[in-house]
Write the structure tokens for this entry.
Amino acid sequence: RDETTKENRDMKVFISWSGKLSEEVASLLKWWLPYAVPGTDTFLSKEDIDKGAIWFGDIEAVLKDTSVGVICLTRENKARPWILFEAGGLNKGLNKSRVCPLLLDLDAKELDLPLKAFNAATADKENMWALCKTINRQNAEKTFPEPHLEEFFNKFWPDFDSKFTALLKKHGGATPPKQKGVQEIVEQILKQCRHC
């Protein structure tokens, strides 16, 4: 009975992932968010669905009971059907839920609908602080005053930052390539034509 009460009180955060980098960042978020925003109950399919369970039904049930969804997005997974399904499931309760694409190795301008309709974040300190404030505001049962929340966040931010940086390095740096300007593209074409 006490456990049920606790579950009703905790803020449900659904973490969506697909692919290795996305999966490892999702695991990092599952560990880190309850420290940065106390009272957060994170759901990660690979850890929170029992073996032998009908996983599709479990995920649908959790999506209905979620107030905040974090979608760990990469160039590799941004158009994968599973990511789009979970984004759609989270979006169904838009009046009460928040969906945040977390951009790991891509830029917001690279997103297509439906993902580009959401206010995306990057994994830097400013954006992650904004995400934590969003999660905190959604927790009507246990909202922390912002100065207290900021103390939690600042205490645990270095842990997230160092582990996230190590994951990016492990997966090949994962920084968005610099976009070429029109002038640079024209010069490159002219240079190639001269050698024809």
Q: What stands out?
A: Residues 38 and 148 are 10 Å apart (CA to CA). The helical segments are 2-9, 20-36, 45-48, 55-64, 81-91, 125-138, 146-170, 182-194. The longest strand covers residues 11-16. The chain is about 50% helix and 15% strand.
